[in-house]
Amino acid sequence: MTLTAVPDDEIFSAYPAPADRYDEMVGSDGSVREHWAYLTRALAQLGPIELENRRRETARLLRDDGVTYNTYDDGISRASDWVLDPIPLLLSSEEWATIEHGVLQRAELLNLVLTDLYGPRELIRKGVLPLEIVYGHRGFLRQCDQISIPGSIQLFSYACELARDTTGQFWALGDFAQAPSGAGYALENRRVMSRVFPSLYRDSQVHRLAPFFRTMRAALHEVAPTGVDDPRVVVLTPGPLNETYFEHAYLSSYLGHTLVEGADLVVRDGRVYLRALAGLEPVHVIVRRVDGWYCDPLELKPDSQLGVPGLVEAARRGTVTVVNTFGASVLENAALLPFLQKVAQHLLGQGLEIPSATTWWCGNEQERSHVLAHLTDLVIKPIARKTGTHSIYGWQLSDAEQTELVARIEAKPHAFVAQERLEFSSVPCLRGAGRGGLELQARPVVLRSFAVARNDSYTAMPGGLARVAATSHGHILSAQGGGISKDIWVVASEPEKQTGFWLLQGPGIEAVDPAGAMSARAAENLFWLGRYAERAESTIRLLRCILDRRTDFHGSSNTAGTECLNGLLGALTKMTATYPGFIGVGAEPRLADPEPELFAIIGDTSRGGSLASSLRSLLASAQAVRDQLSADTWLVVSEIERELGALDRNAPDPQAAMQTVLAGLIRSLLALAGLAHESMVRDPGWQFMDAGRRLERALLLTDLLRTTVVSVRGDAAESLMLESILIASESIITYRRRYRSQAQVETVLDLLLIDEENPRSLMAQLERLNTEIAAFPRRTKNQRTAEERLALEAYTMLRIADTASLAAPSMSDATRRLALDDLLASMSTLLSHTADAIDATNFTHLEPRRMFVAGQTDDLGRTLSGVMP
Amino acid sequence: MKYEIVHRTEYRYDADVSANYSEVHLIPRTLDGQVCRAHALVIDPVPEDHRERTDFFGNPVAYFSIQKPHRQLSVTATSTVEVTGRGATLDLLSSEPWDAVRSRLQAGAGAPDPEAITARQFILDSPLVARDELADAYARPSFPPGRPLVDAVMDLSSRIHRDFEYKPGATDIATKLPDVLEAREGVCQDFAHLAIGCVRAVGLPARYVSGYLETEPPPGEEKILGADASHAWFSVFVPGVGWLDLDPTNDQVPNDQYVTAAWGRDYADVTPMKGVVFSSSKHPELHVAVDVLRLPA
CA A730 from chain center: how many Å? Predict the structure, then answer.
C-alpha cells in the first residue's frame, strides 16, 4: 500500500496514533494510508477555525433535524441528541470488499440457521448446535414455529458489528436480527456530512447509500404475500418513547411507508388491517420495530400494549408478511458465535470469511472451566441481549464481584458466554482542546454493517454506522450510554454514477389514496397539533397584551386601567382553564400580585392548561406524526424546546424575562403556522390540522369575548378593554385603519365576529372549518356527518346575528349584554360538540384491552382470577 | 375405557365486548394408549374466524375471534376418547440410577439420540417454573446418589402428597414455587409445578400435563353432572422407555381413569382457555363445568 506523509498542519501532524492499536488513518510507520490521503489534505487545508465551524455546523444540523436517541433512566424516557463526529471513517475498496463478502456470507449463513430453527431443527437433532443455546434463549418463540415468509430467505434484514484487532484483521463481535437498528441513523449521518462537507464529499468518490434503500423498498414490496400486486407496507413502532423512534419515523417517511403503532392495526378474519381515516385498509407487509415477544398479547407477551391480538395467527396463515420474523432474535445470540464456524462448514461447506470474536460458551463444561480460570482476562456476556444488561469486563471486577459472577454462571451456565478481549482499531476524532483550539484524538471504533435480502440474495449497505468510544481508552458504548457515531465512507476506486433514491428502476410507483395511507391515529394527532399550536399562540398574544397593560398601569391609580387589566387576567384564566387563577373567591391576592401566577401559566408544565403544557402537548403530537411533517418542522420544534427552557423566574426583571421568552415563542409558532401553510400538501392530514386550528381559534375567541365584552363598563374602561381585545386578536391595525375612532363595541364585534375578510374573525374560522370538514374522508356517502351539521349550525347562527343588537346593553339588566352572552354561550357549546363529533366520527376509539385466562377447574378461586391490564 | 368429555366454559361480562380473540387447549391429543375418536368445539356467539392447528408441543389448539358485540361467551368442547393400558409400561421401566440418566442427557455426551436431545428442553426454566433453591433443597432427599430414577420420582410425588395440603383458593395463576413451598398448600397445578421444579433442579427433564380425571360418586350415590374437573399432573423422561406420568395430588400413577389433554413446559404452554377482549368490563363472571362420562365399550 502506498503511504503518504501526514499533512504538515497543527492538527494532523499532532495526531497521536496509538502504538498498541491498528490505526485506521495512520500506518505503523507514521504515514497516512493512501485512501485517507485526499481527506486529510482537504481537511488540513480547511484549517482549524473552519474545521471547528464545520463541527458546530454538524451538531446544529442534527439538532435542527431533531435527530435524537431516547435513553431510559429510572424508567423515564429522555431524548438525547445524536452525536456525529465530522471526520468520517474511510474504507478502501479492498477493505470494503472484505467486509462486504464477510457480512453477506454471515447473513446467508444465519438465514439458513433461522430457517432451520423454525423449521426442521436438523441442527439440533444432529447435535450441530446444543439445544440449550436455542431453547434457553428468550428470542426463541415456540408460538412462531413453522411460520415462514414468501421467498427462499427468512432473515430479511441483518446487521453485524465488526471490529479490527491490532493486526488489522476484522472480527465479527455480534449479530443483529431482531429489528436491526442504525441504518436510518447512517442515512441521516450521510445527509448531514454531505451538507457540511459538500465539495469534499463530492470529490472523494464515496459510494452512495440511496441504492441500498431503493433495494430495501423494492424488497419490501416483493416479500408481500403471493398474489398481492400493490402491497401496503407499514412500519410498526412501539411509539415516540422508543429509543430509536427517530429512525422509525425517518425511514418510514423516506421509504414512503405508513408509520403505525399496535393500536392502529386490527386483525379481522385472519387478515391485518390499518385503522385508516377512510376505514379499514388491508396491510400486507409489516416492518417490525417492536420486539417479537411484544407483538401479540394473545399468543406472546400477555400484558403487551404494543402488539396486535391475532397478529401471529395472521402471519401463520401468510396473509401478512412480518419482517423480520417474530422469532428472528434467537440469532442475536452470543452462544452461537463459538459454533458458527462449524455450522458454516455444515451448511455452506466453507469457513467464515470474517471470523467471530473468540467466544466460549459456558454451557460446555470444558469451556466453562477455561472461562472460570481466566475470568479476569475476558468479557462476559449473557447469551441474549437485553436492555439494561451489558457486557462485564472481567478485569474490572473486585474479588467479591468475581465470586458473585462465578455463582451466577454456575447456576445457569448455558446462559453465559465469555469473549476474548480485543484491542479495537482507532480512528481520529475531533475534540475541542484548551483555549478554543481543536485536536485529534485516537479512539477505539466498531463498525455496524447492514444487509437486506432481495431476490434470494443479500445486498450490503456500502457504508454503515461507526461508533467510537467517548475517550481514547474507553469501551464502545451504545448511544444508550452516550456514544458517538461516525459516517463510514467507502471510497470508490472509480467514480460512481450518481442516483437519487427515487431514480432508476424499482417497483412501479403508483399514487396511493392519502386517506387510506393515513392512520386514524395520525389524523387525530394532526388535529390536536393544530389545536395546541393555536392554543399556545392565542395564549401568548393575550399574555403579551396583559404584560403591556401592566407596564402601562402598574402602580398607577387609574381605575379604568386596573379594571381592564383585571378583566384581561380573568379572561386568561378562562382561556387557559387554569382555575381558580384570577377568577372568583380568593382571586384578590393574585390580582394584586399577578406575577407568580403569570409565571406558572407560562412555564409550569405540571399545570394543565399552562402555555408550557400546551407546548409540551404540541411537541408530543408532532413527535407522534414525525413521518408526516416536513424536515424543517424540527428546526422550529427544537427552537420551541430551547425557548421554553430559557424562562428564568429569578431574572432581575421578571416582566422583561417573560416578554423575551414570549416573543421568541411566538416567532417559532408563526414559523410553524407558515410551514403548515406553505410546505404541507393539502391532504386529509392537513385538513384535520387546519380544522383543529380553526376550531380552537373560534373557541378561544368566543371565550375571550364572553369574559370581556358581556359586562357593560364605563367609557374609559370599555375603550381600553376593546383596544386590548383587538390587540390580543391581532386586529388592532385593521380596526384603526377602518374606523379611525375610539373602539366601539358594535364595530369591534363587526370586525371580530362577522367580518369574513378578517382572517382573525369568528366568521372566517367557521367558514374554513366548514370547508375542511366537508373535505374529510367519509365512510358513508350522501349523508352529512354530525360534525358537518354542527359546524353548519354554528356558521348559520353567526350569519343571522345582528351586531347592533348584540352590542346594546340588555333591557332587563343594563350592566350586561345578555343577547351577546346567549350567542357566545350557544356558539361555545356548538363548537365543543363539533370537536366531539370530529373525534367520534374519525378517530379510533379502542376500549381497554384485557386478557382473561381460565385455569384448571379444580379450583374455582383460580379460574376467576387472572385479569391482566 | 371410553369416555365422553364435556368441558364447558362460560364468560358473562358486565359491559359489551366489542372484539374477542381467544386460544383454547380443549381438545385431547392422541398418544400411546389414548385415542381421541371425535371432538367438537361449539362456540356461542359463532365466531367470524375459527381455526384449529397443532402447537409446538404437538397439542391440538384452536384459535377463534368474535367481532360483534356480545356480553356472554360460551365454549363447549365435547370429545370422545379411548384410553387403554395407561400405566401398563410400569413393569418395563428401567432401573437406571437418576444420576446416570442425568450424565447421559448432558450436552455433548456421546452420540446424539434425537429423543433425548428433545427431552432436554424440559430441563430448562419455563415461564412459570424457574430454577429455585428452595425447590432444590426440597428435592434432594428423594435423590440420593445411585437411586433408580423411577424410585426417586415416585418418592418425590408421594412426599408432595404427604407434605402439602390440597386447598382450593389458596393460590392463583400467578403463584410461584417459593410461595407454594412456604405455604405448604395449593391445588393440582401447584403440585405439578412443584414436582417439575424439583425434577429440573436435579438436572432431569420434567413436563406439565393437563387433562381430566374420571371421578366416582361415593358408594350408593348417583354421579352429579358438572362435578368433574380438569386436572393436572407431571411427567418425567425415562431414557429408553419414554415419559412416565405421576399425579402428586392423588399420589398415584395415572391409570385408565386419566385422559391427557395437552402437555408443555408448564401451565402457561397449555392454558385451557385464554383470550384478549376489548371491553370496559373488568370482572367477568366465569363458570366452568366438566363432565367425564364413561361410555359403554
Answer: 34
Q: Is B48 on the interface with A (CB under 8 A)?
A: yes
What is the reported pTM?
A: 0.89
Kindly report the CA angle at A23 between A21 and A26, in degrees rounded to 5?
135
Contacts of A306 in chain B (CB under 8 A): none
Q: What is the nearest CA distance from A430 to chain B, expressed in angstroms?
A: 49
Q: Is B230 part of the contact surface with chain A (CB cutoff 8 Å)?
A: yes
Interchain pair B49, A142: CB under 8 A: no
CA A116, A117, A123, A125 torsion: positive or negative?
A: negative
Contact B275 A298 (CB under 8 A): yes
Could you identify the residue written with the cell 380425571?
Answer: B213
Give B-chain residues touching A850 at CB under 8 angstroms: 276-277, 279, 281-282
Instruction: Give residue A504's pLDDT.
Output: 45
Q: Strand (E) positions, A477-527? A: 484-490
CB contact under 8 A, A268 and B108: no
pLDDT for A511 equals 57
B280 vs A: CB within 8 A: yes
pLDDT of B59 over the 70 cut: yes
Cβ contact B276–A849 (<8 Å): yes
Triad A686, A688, A694: Cα angle to 5°: 100
> Over the stretch A615-637, which tens digit does the pLDDT of each residue have?
999 998 998 898 888 878 888 88
Strands A279-282 and B285-295: unpaired
What are the angstrom distances between the C-alpha of A15 and each of A19, A28, A197? 12, 13, 21
Please state the ipTM of this predicted complex.
0.95
What pLDDT sits at residue A866? 31
Interface touch A130/B118, C-beta < 8 Å:
no
Looking up cell 431443527, which residue turns up? A121
A vs B, Cβ pairs < 8 A, gives: 164
Q: Please report where in the chains the cell 412416565 appears, as a residue.
A: B244
pLDDT at A512: 61
Q: Of A336, A306, A380, A322, whose CA–CA distance to A113 is shortest?
A: A336
Give the side-chain half-sphere CA count within 13 A for A474: 16
Task: Kindly tell me the sign of the dihedral angle through the C-alpha atoms of A147, A150, A151, A156.
Answer: negative
Q: What residues in A contact B118, CB-CB < 8 Å?
A: 125, 131
Q: What angle do CA B263, B264, B269 make, to 5 degrees?
A: 115
Neighbours of A591 (CB within 10 A): 16
- The parts of chain A modelled with pLDDT lower than 50 are 1, 479, 503-509, 856-869
Q: What is the CA radius of gyration of chain A?
A: 32
3-state secondary structure of A512: coil
Chain B residue numbers touching A310 (CB-CB < 8 A): 21, 63, 65
**Interchain CB distance below 8 Å, B210 and A856:** yes
Q: Which of B108, B278, B288 sits opposite A857 (nearest CB)?
A: B288
Instruction: Provide φ and ψ at A356, rounded to 5°.
Output: -80, 145
Distance of CA A11 to the CA centre of its chain: 37
Mutate to test the interface with A, among B16, B17, B21 (most CBs of A within 10 A): B21
B250 touches chain A (CB under 8 A): no
Do A280 and A265 touch, CB atoms closer than 8 A? no
* Residue B44, H or E segment: strand B34-44
Owner of C-alpha cell 447456576: A411
Q: What is the pLDDT of residue A869?
A: 26
**For residue A643, which phi and psi values (nearest 5 degrees)?**
-65, -40
What the block records as the C-alpha cell of A208 is 452512495
Q: How far is B279 from chain A (nearest CA, A)?
A: 5
> What nine digits make up the cell of A376?
479476569
Per-residue pLDDT tens digits for B204-218: 999 999 999 988 877
Residue A37 three-state SS: helix
